[in-house]
Amino acid sequence: YSAFNEGGFPSLLADGSDIPKSQVKKLTKIFNAQERKWKAAEKEGKDCNNKEHHINEDSTEIISKNHVREERRPSATSATTIDSEIIVDEGDLGRLHMANGTFGGRQGWEMMSTGPFTHQLVF
Prior knowledge:
Region (Disordered): 42-80
Number of strands: 2
Strand order of the largest sheet: 1-2
């Protein structure tokens, strides 16, 4: 989309032409559903904050904590500084390990490929 109104709703297609009525209707339906979800989540968040579950930190404390985290983070080494090649035995790291059970609900697994690749699962 190339243009949006003040509410964030698209008004023109990428090529600058008007959006067809059917697409406007579909986008309006999706947009309104998303607004309802957003308002419900926002209301739920405000309710949680009213129940003493809010953060009492000001922005300077948060910034100082982030600065400390950055200092503790190990510095990255460039590939040119490594003198010798390290060979790591991967062992079984290349295989997919699956475990039986529900683990709190359905967990989907999707594998997509955009090229002429072959995927082989070894169990």
